[in-house]
């Protein structure tokens, strides 16, 4: 089909921010006197927003205490260890050249998301960056997707979503749009396919022809 808009998840799809995220969770849990989490534990916890990730790692009774430590530290270190995933810039440039709009739809906090996109040079290639706090909703709630599409002047019928997690797959399903999965983030190809994803790729370079139709 012919797309006019492509929505992208951020962490694990366009960027690799997991080392900084892991460092911040490790700092927080050590400050609380808890065992430091492994990278695997952090990857398994993220995707649904920072509050959910913290709650999964420290437990509901200490979530507020942990967030009070996590958030200031995150803002201090978040740009220290973040990088683009292979093919991100090239794909966004190809979409722009083909007059397709690209935007970020993420459960990462909106202020952090926009700051990171600016830092990595993604912002000039994006028509919008929509994150947690921009609306009352997070992925996979359709209200969040509808808000982004409205701001972009886009329609569901000509939009696809690219992401690395089951949150992203569910977001696309609830919105009624095609989903292209990549295995550069939190979920394997087997996990995405088991959840119902039909199109799963090793990276962004393989996704480009399916968005562009060539």
Write a structural description.
There is one protein chain. With 214 residues, this protein is an alpha/beta fold. The chain folds into two domains: 5-16 and 82-212, HAD superfamily/HAD-like (Rossmann fold, 3-Layer(aba) Sandwich), CATH 3.40.50.1000; 18-77, DNA polymerase, domain 1. It is 47% helix and 15% strand. It is built from ten helices and eight strands. The protein has helices at residues 18-31, 39-45, 50-58, 63-77, 88-97, 110-119, 142-152, 166-175, 189-194, 204-212; strands at 5-8, 15-16, 83-84, 101-109, 128-132, 159-163, 179-182, 200-201. The strands form two sheets. Strands 5-4-1-6-7-8 form a six-stranded parallel β-sheet, sandwiched between helices. It has a two-stranded antiparallel ribbon with strand order 2-3. The N and C termini lie close together (11 Å).
